[in-house]
Amino acid sequence: MEVLGPKTITMTPPSCSAILTGSGDETGWGIPSVQTVLMSLPAFASGVSEALKIQGKNDVTVMGLAGDGGTFDIGLQALSGAIERGHKALFICYNNEAYMNTGNQRSSATTLGAATKTTPTGKKEVAKDIDFMLLHTPLAYQATASVANMKDLKRKIAKAAAKDGPSFIHIMTPCPSGWKFPTEQAIQVAKLAVKCGMWLQFEREDGKITINQKPTDWGAVSTYIGMQKRFNRINPETIASITEAAKKRYETLMKLGEIECL
Ligand SMILES: Cc1ncc(C[n+]2csc(CCOP(=O)(O)OP(=O)(O)O)c2C)c(N)n1
Ligand SMILES: [Mg+2]
Predict the structure, then answer these.
(1) Ligand nearest to the CA of residue 95, numbered in listed order
(2) What is each CA distance from 195 to 77, 175, 222, in whole angstroms?
(3) What's the gap in Å between 158 CA and the centre of ligand 1?
């Protein structure tokens, strides 16, 4: 909100953030806010964005804030449609890697090997790569960001809001209760994810990908995993395959940085 200012209309689907922020007359946002249904925040945003356009209100930002469940899974179809139609709106996904508000059920964003209520022995599937999927959509601006780097996040929000089309920012948001680590380590966990390459910081603008921060220590993947009790039952082979996949993803991103994307 510091970046977007008061001329913003926000919406949130059911999620932890909806509980924190509220909606209508009972909201902590201090600006107009709507609580949408879980499957279609981007459809709500499309409608509000078009209404503002008809009213000639070009200086109002429409910002949707959804979790990984509301973005990767249940809201994906609506997001895909809103991007394809090109509405001016900023879609922010805070990714805590599970359906946390309802008690930590796995989502398609949950990392391989992580225990959740519905994967008590560790998730068997790799996480859906929403960033790479969205590289092939006509977003006016796309970025990843981290709660451990607020300066970078604010810069990206400002850029996204200035675009005359749909933009998407994907924020890594460690969840102490769901990932099972002490709350005071949240920023440390987020920093480590970037350092070990489990989280890639990049942006796509005008068809060009820029890597904002390079992974510096692939060996720290096991430290990152070791800090979180959700990975208590993971074996060394799975850690090795997670590390390999992270390396491959970074190599692919570097190659994509050399060519023009959509
Ligand atoms: C269609 C539909 N299915 C299920 C629910 C129940 N529900 C409410 S919040 C939530 C979790 C959302 O997870 P996510 O989007 O990752 O946000 P988080 O809770 O992790 O912040 C679920 C499943 C719902 N409200 N609507
Ligand atoms: Mg979530």
Answers:
(1) 2
(2) 32, 18, 12
(3) 28
2 falls within a domain: no
Task: Report if residue 1 sits inside a domain.
Answer: no
Write down the pTM of the prediction. 0.97
257 — pLDDT class (breaks 50, 70, 90): confident
- Which value, to the nearest 10 degrees, does the dihedral of the CA atoms of residues 62, 13, 160, 260 take? -130
Q: What is the mean pLDDT of residues 241-247?
A: 97
Give the C-alpha separation, 117 to 133, whole Å. Answer: 27
Q: Can you give the residue range of the structural domain that contains 209?
A: 8-258
Distance CA 56, CA 185 (A): 46
Is 159 contained in some domain? yes
Residue nearest to atom 1 of ligand 1 (CA): 38
Q: What domain count does the chain have?
A: 1
Domain membership flag for residue 245: yes
Position 25 scores a pLDDT of 79
Task: Give per-residue pLDDT as tens, 140-170.
Answer: 999 999 999 999 999 999 999 999 999 999 9
CATH assignment of the domain containing 75: 3.40.50.970
Query: Which is nearest to 95 in space by CA: 75, 132, 134, 67?
Result: 67
